[in-house]
């Protein structure tokens, strides 16, 4: 039975969804890292918020783990490379708290513009300091959005409703998308120079860490106001403090900090800094939304193979998974066939799709080909980590499509390039939707791959088939199917033989000694 652990505080709806779909679920909050490491091997899925740290050590102990689901956007607490290496899908829920976080950014913008927290504290203290709290309007001001994805686009929409002008910097924002959401796409320096308010909505990566630092502040307008509801590391806090001290920055609204929980910070105590304790996703609606989304996504993957909002593999809907299922069997067999027959260092894997299959989402198929190919060579490979493992070993993976049909309505070709030459295999699905091999290198052959097989390359000479059958008969190894192909009369030939039991090494050794045989190997699928 599939089993999931919820290790952080989530809405009870998450557990209800898992159990309604037949998944055994434990919710144990507050586990130490040692306790989690001890228990994690029991589970197929792990649902978390931000408290649980999914480290390489935890992942190494998670022998049965297939998916980690983060209820929320940020996955700073998950070691994604280690998860990928261990074949574990990492999902987040980027849409569940988008509106909540965007609204918090807008709220901080208002609070900074009108000095609301300090004005409230002053008024509660019995003071009436109208002249002390002179704010600025948002109308007609320019908002610079750094990172115009899901949340940034919602912030832009709300800002436009407030009659602000919006410019956006995002390397992944197309001109068409910018026009659609009503923002002007600009480079970072232009944004820094033009913005009256700057709001950050980008993930924390090596390229975005400290994106607002000393040099960036120097390029800004005097009196700019900064909003950050994304990640604390995006801002160099020492540089922000200097900019506040100099008056370059008139105010800041910060929901996130470089070190959290932020019990102490050099920016605390500034009247013009509005600080909140990472409340961006903290609404009742958002907590329910992300819990429901993560449970549904994880259940879909564990039960149906559907992949949604994964950070380390291509997405795959449940419907796509059903349509791709027979192709998955085909490409896994093709990859495994080539992998079992490859004995030299692999330089490149070429995968070509032709005909009907090109209408489908082939990215998961490519991952499965590489999984099937590398598994016989190194083990512990699945569709999650296959491409990453290939990359780590400098194996170039090339995927191509050819929409027109050839001799078959659909065809997949896998070629491995090694330092000793190339080897390829082609396969298709027949009307029964069962995989067939139809060509090995340049030799045509039609055969179904079964659990136990013997593959031989030989010279096309009389007596080979009889000699091979004799050896198998003497070894009490029954033949299920026998498939032959040859390049030309008397030239190179191949035999693909299905047998009822695994071929013992001594039988393979006897076959290899036949005069006609160039190479023979037992295969398993």
What would the principal axes of the Cα set say about the shape?
elongated
The number of E-state strands comes to: 22
Strand content: 15-25%
Q: How big is the Rg? A: 30 Å
**Largest sheet, strands/sense/barrel:** 7 strands, parallel
Overall CATH architecture of the largest domain: 3-Layer(aba) Sandwich
> Quick one: CATH class of the largest domain?
Alpha Beta
Q: Please give the count of helices.
A: 17
Structural domains: how many = 4
Summed over residues and divided by their number, the pLDDT gives a mean of 92
Poorly predicted spans: none
General description of the model:
The chain has 4 domains: 3-94 and 285-304, 3-Layer(aba) Sandwich (Rossmann fold); 98-275, Rossmann fold (3-Layer(aba) Sandwich), CATH 3.40.50.720; 315-448, 60s Ribosomal Protein L30, Chain: A (2-Layer Sandwich); 450-525, ACT domain (Alpha-Beta Plaits, 2-Layer Sandwich). It has helices at residues 12-20, 33-39, 56-61, 80-85, 98-114, 116-124, 150-161, 175-181, 188-194, 214-218, 237-246, 284-304, 318-341, 363-378, 386-392, 464-474, 505-512, and strands spanning 3-6, 24-27, 45-48, 67-70, 89-91, 142-146, 165-169, 184-185, 197-200, 224-228, 249-254, 273-275, 346-355, 396-402, 410-418, 421-429, 435-440, 443-447, 452-459, 479-486, 492-499, 517-524. 41% of the residues are buried. Strand 1 (3-6), helix 1 and strand 2 (24-27) form a beta-alpha-beta unit. The strands form 4 sheets. The chain has a 7-stranded parallel β-sheet with strand order 8-7-6-9-10-11-12, with helices on both faces. It has a 6-stranded mixed β-sheet with strand order 14-13-15-16-17-18. A 5-stranded parallel β-sheet has the order 2-1-3-4-5. With 525 residues, it is an alpha/beta fold. The chain contains 17 helices and 22 strands. The longest helix has 24 residues, at 318-341.
């Amino acid at each position: 039975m599939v089993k999931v652990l919820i290790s952080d505080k989530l809405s009870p709806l998450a557990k209800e969804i898992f159990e309604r779909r037949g998944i055994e679920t434990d919710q144990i909050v507050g586990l130490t890292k040692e306790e989690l490491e001890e228990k994690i091997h029991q589970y197929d899925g792990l649902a978390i918020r931000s408290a649980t740290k999914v480290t390489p050590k935890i992942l190494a102990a998670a022998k049965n783990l297939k998916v980690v689901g983060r209820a929320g956007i940020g996955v700073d607490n998950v070691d994604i490379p280690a998860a990928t290496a261990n074949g574990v899908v990492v999902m987040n829920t980027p849409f569940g708290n988008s509106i909540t976080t965007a609204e918090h950014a807008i709220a901080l913008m208002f609070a900074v513009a009108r000095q609301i927290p300090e004005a409230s504290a002053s008024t509660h203290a019995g003071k009436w300091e109208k002249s002390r709290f002179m704010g600025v309007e948002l109308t007609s001001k320019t908002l610079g959005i750094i990172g115009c994805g899901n949340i940034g686009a919602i912030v832009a929409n709300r800002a436009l409703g407030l009659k602000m002008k919006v410019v956006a910097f995002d390397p992944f924002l197309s001109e068409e998308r910018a026009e659609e959401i009503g923002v002007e796409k600009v480079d970072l320096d232009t944004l820094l120079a033009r913005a009256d308010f700057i709001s950050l909505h980008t993930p924390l990566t090596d390229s975005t860490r400290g994106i607002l630092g000393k040099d960036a502040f120097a390029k800004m307008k005097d009196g700019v106001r900064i909003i950050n509801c994304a990640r604390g590391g995006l801002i160099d806090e020492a540089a922000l403090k200097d900019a506040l001290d100099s008056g370059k920055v008139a105010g800041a609204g910060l929901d996130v900090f470089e070190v959290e929980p932020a019990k102490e910070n050099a920016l605390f105590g500034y009247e013009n800094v509005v600080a909140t304790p990472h409340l961006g996703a903290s609404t009742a609606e958002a907590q329910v939304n992300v819990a429901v989304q993560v449970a549904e996504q994880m259940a879909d993957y564990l039960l149906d193979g559907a992949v949604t909002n994964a950070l380390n593999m291509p997405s795959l809907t449940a419907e796509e998974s059903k349509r791709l299922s027979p192709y998955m069997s085909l490409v896994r067999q093709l990859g495994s066939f080539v992998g079992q027959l490859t004995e030299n260092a692999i330089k490149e894997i070429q995968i070509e799709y032709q005909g009907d299959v090109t209408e489908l989402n082939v990215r998961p198929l490519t991952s499965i080909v590489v999984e099937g190919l590398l598994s016989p060579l190194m083990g512990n490979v699945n569709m999650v980590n296959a491409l990453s493992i290939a990359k780590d070993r400098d194996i170039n993976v090339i995927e191509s499509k050819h929409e027109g049909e050839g001799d078959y309505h659909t065809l997949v070709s896998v070629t491995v390039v090694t330092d000793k030459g190339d080897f390829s295999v082609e396969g298709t699905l027949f009307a029964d939707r069962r995989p067939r091999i139809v060509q090995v290198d340049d030799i045509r052959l039609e055969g179904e791959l079964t659990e136990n097989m013997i593959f031989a390359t030989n010279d096309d000479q009389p007596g080979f088939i009889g000699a091979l059958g004799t050896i198998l008969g003497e070894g009490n190894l029954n033949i299920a199917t026998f498939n032959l192909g040859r390049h030309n009369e008397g030239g190179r030939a191949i035999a693909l033989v299905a047998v009822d039991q695994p071929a013992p090494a001594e039988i393979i050794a006897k076959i290899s000694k036949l005069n006609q045989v160039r190479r023979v190997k037992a295969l398993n699928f």
